[in-house]
Amino acid sequence: MAPEIPPPVLKEAYLRFDSAAFLDFTSVVFISGAYSGCLYISTSRGLLEALLSEHHEPEINDQTRLDMCRELSNVLAGNASRAFGADWTISVPKSLTAGDTGSLPLPPSTFVMPFLWKDMESYLVIGLTGNAKA
Amino acid sequence: MNNSKTFHNTWSLQQLPVTLQLLGNEWRFLLCCDGRTNIGQIQERLDLSPAEGELIVKHLSSIGLLTETSLSLEDFARSTVDRAQPGNGTQTFQEYLATAEPPLNSSSHPLPKEKAVPAFSPLQKPSQSMSLQAVIQFILNHNNSDPTAGHFATYQVFMGIGTPLLKRNGITSLRFQDDRIISDPELQNAIIESLEKVLKVKCTPEMLAAAGAAKN
User: Which carries the bigger pLDDT value, residue B170 or residue B29?
Assistant: First the structure.
């Protein structure tokens, strides 16, 4: 019998007003509605490798890590569509490596929800700004 | 001391401890240090000798009330405006500055005393301090049945406040159990304004006051 996969554990959320929190790989969707901004999951290389391993992926390299990052992006976009509803526009998900995140147009204030999986920390982040509709 | 140096108040009047004790001339001097008027001009306005002025500057600087100001050329020129001699002829900028240099004998161009001496007013008691934890609790209590909604409402409230203002007050991140005393009236007003907008309730500073304003 296969060992049970531990669920991720959500840690205490916090607000951040300076530079955004990023790890090695980031999956992002941009949203626009009552507010505009983005949601992203930023994970470590190790966490993606553990996920690939859970999926019995034989090859672990930057390409497969980015593929797994895209999978997370798709899950994120799907959940965002359900959570925000029809009044919101959800962008096509993007997957980025650490070097690409500097060019992301991010709001100055973010809501960071760190979570642990297999003792590795990742961030689920919401970054919004108010707009005329708010 | 170089009389052309300019100083500004390190702290706003509201930030000064109400128990701070200074001599009358020191208060007057402190109130004249606006970052534009130089030491020589202030001495003249307050009818102080250079030695008295030097003593006051040394004392106020040593207790951290005064900080020397770096001036741009434009600021320097502005600081000389009330020294420049009116003339009919045109002058180059350098000529103008030369006429604006403080005279060797400071009594040779006395300024009308009533012109520049700011009226002395005693320190006002600092406005009521606000507790960041009181702000967070106010928001969470408003969303009593749903902690996640409360956290998100807190985010919405702080999202509506300019990050430069938050950073200026040393707030670069915020955990929900954090507490901090906020004495900056601008930030206090911004919090109340954003809170009322997001929660659509009326809120007074007293509702967010720090327990025991002496904390700061």
Answer: B170
The tally of CA atoms less than 13 A away on the side-chain side of residue A19 is 6
The nearest CA of chain B is from the CA of A76 a distance in Å of 18
Q: What is the dihedral of CA B39, B44, B48, B54, to 10 degrees?
A: 20
Is residue A65 packed enough to be buried (19+ CB in 10 Å), middle (13-18) or exposed (0-12)?
A: buried
Better pLDDT: B165 or B210: B165
CATH number of domain containing A90? 3.40.1550.10
Q: For residue B209, what is the DSSP state?
A: B
In the prediction, which pLDDT does B206 show? Answer: 83
What is this structure's pTM?
0.60
- Closest CB to B173: pick one of A14, A126, A128: A14
Give me the residues of B, 122-181, that contact A with CB < 8 A: 151-152, 154-155, 158-160, 163, 166-167, 171-176
Task: Quote the minimal CA–CA distance from A33 to chain B in Å.
Answer: 14
**Is residue A4 in some structural domain?**
no
Q: What angle do helix axes A62-84 and A45-54 make, rounded to 10 degrees?
A: 90
B159, B163, B174 member nearest A128 (Cβ): B159
Does A2 fall in a domain? no
pLDDT at B125: 46
Q: Tell me whether residue A63 is in a domain.
A: yes
Q: What is the tally of structural domains in chain A?
A: 1
Owning domain of residue A51? 9-15+26-130
Q: What is the ipTM of this complex?
A: 0.83
| Per-residue pLDDT reduced to its tens digit, B75-95 | 666 655 555 455 556 655 556
Residue A20 inside a domain? The answer is no
Mutation site, B155, B180, B196, B197, interface A, largest A CB count within 10 A = B155
Residue B114 has pLDDT above 60, yes or no: no
Residue B71 has pLDDT above 80, yes or no: no
